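Appendix C reproduces, verbatim, an entry submitted by the partner laboratory led by Prof. M.T., so that reviewers can inspect both the input and the predicted structure.
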Amino acid sequence: MLTRLREIEQSVHFTFDGASMRAERGDMLATALLAAGVHQVRHSVVSGAPRAPYCLMGVCFECLVTVDGVQNRQACLIEVDDGMTVLSQNGASSLPPHSGPDEGA
C-alpha cells in the first residue's frame, strides 16, 4: 500500500464509486486512489481480473476509470480536482454502432 510522506496540507475532495476521498491538491488521481487504500480501479476486459494502477506514467492503461462521466481516462495522467466523480470500470465500454461509407456492404 502507498503511504504519504507528509500530511495533506491543501486538500481536495472527490468520490470513487460513491465513497468520499481526500487528496492533496496537485496529486495525480491514480496516486490519490492508492494513498486512500483503493486496491483496484477496474476489471480486465478478457478475464474479469481486478486491475490497479501499475506504471503511473501512462504506458500500461491499467488505471482506466470513468471521470465525471467520461470513460477510459488514465488516472495516472489526470490531476485530482475538487468535486471530481470517479467510477471504476468493468470491462470495456460499449461502442456506438458503426456508421460509415462501407455500412451494409
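The chain has one helix and eight strands. Additional entries are available on request from the coordinating office.
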